[in-house]
Amino acid sequence: MSSFNSATASLSLQDADVAVPRSTGQPTLAARLLGAWQAAWPTLRRFLLAWPFPLAIFALWSAAAHFEWVAPQVLPSPETVFNTFGDLFNSGELRTNGVISFNRVVSGFAIGASSGLLLGVLMGLSPTFKDYVYPIFRAFAQVPSLGWLPLLMMLVGIDEALKIILVAKAALVPVALNTLKGIEGVPTRYIEVAKVYGFNQWQLLVRVVFPAAFPMIWNGVRYGLTHSWLALVAVELLASSEGLGFLIVYGRQLYQMDVVMAAVVVVGAVGFVLDKVLATIETRLLRWRHDAF
CA-to-CA distance for 146 and 150, rounded, in angstroms? Predict the structure, then answer.
């Protein structure tokens, strides 16, 4: 009886080995697809949630133009704006003015961002320099860029220098402020640990202070570029004979609202792309950071 039970148990184990395949250690196709879906879902979810409101605005615009809730001379249809955009692009007028605006914002932003970075570093590292400069800087920052327009028009005229100066001012303020706050926000324990390891002043700045302050500094750069683009379009609306802002004014003067809306769409698209480029660079440079939630 004992030998029979042993044989039965042995046969059952053999059957179990045959019935249950041994794991090879490789995930199945379904598991890989599920893992890819779980990894992509947060990004896809954010993408899907971003679209309902713009689509609703577009549907309302289309309905208002189709049923003429607003006069066509005031609110052209999306089809009209799209056709006007194509005409402006094919004629080269849109590209010419867009390149002019882009060159202006790049030049002004480079000057303003570099000056703001230097000013923020000096105020952050030198309390004495901050005591002398910061009150004047705060007063200077409280005046919007367009508030300086009449004075600058008297000093430099309405040529390219006016646009570059105002764009540079728009970039300088957020870059300087965020650089200052970033340096002041470096935790004291980082400094103490660096001193324990015997870091000199240069090593302390390069290896501790600037890396710790970099996220805040980069936020200032992003805000500075956004403010530069907005300031440029505003000054082109008031004092320019070229650029996207001028194209908006030109369309308004001729009561061609399709030209105005086409130029507005381009202004928004360019600003969005510029911010996305800096956001992508930030993601790569600060990939060591993790979101709190």
Answer: 8
